[in-house]
Amino acid sequence: MSLLGRGDVVTQQSGSHSRTITGYLAHLLEYPRWLMECDVDFTQCPYHGRYDNFVAECDTCIYGKACKWLSSYTTSAIKKAPLTDLVDALESAVDYVAGRQQAEHQANCVCDSCEWLRTSRQFLRSFPE
Ligand SMILES: [Zn+2]
Fold it and tell me: How many domains does the chain have?
């Protein structure tokens, strides 16, 4: 049995450094991805961390929210995703990051989470629906 040919194609960026809105969104999505990857523990997961909408356990799993996000918005999916999907990804990431915040953060807190939340919420507010 060969593990090759699973369809994982590594795409090379062709050297364009223009800062597009999708590029900026992809950049904003890096922090919640990192955070969720730290949060989840798939060692006991019978599905190896692949979220499945049709599996009831995924719905009730304590890592379900992060797992669903990570499964939906992989780095390669984000490269191809339309802008509206990226905005959806950012909105749900904001919910996730805000939801895992400890209550004692001040309004002017400068921790990574608070700074990311401020930047992302500002972006979402300025984004024309
Ligand atoms: Zn904070």
Answer: 1
Q: CA–CA separation, 59 vs 70, rounded Å?
A: 14
Spell out the per-residue pLDDT of the chain, length 129, in tens. Answer: 444 433 333 333 444 444 688 999 999 999 999 999 999 999 999 999 999 989 999 999 999 999 999 999 999 999 999 999 999 999 999 999 999 987 889 889 999 999 999 999 999 998 766
Q: What is the value of pTM for the model shown?
A: 0.80
What's the number of CA atoms in the CB half-sphere (13 Å) around residue 51? 18
User: Separation of 102 CA from ligand 1 center, angstroms?
Assistant: 8
Q: How far is the CA of 92 from the centre of ligand 1 (A)?
A: 19
Distance 12 CA to ligand 1 centre (A): 36
Q: What is the Å distance from ligand 1's center to 117 Cα?
A: 9
CB 59 within 8 A of CB 68: no
For residue 122, is it within any domain?
Answer: yes
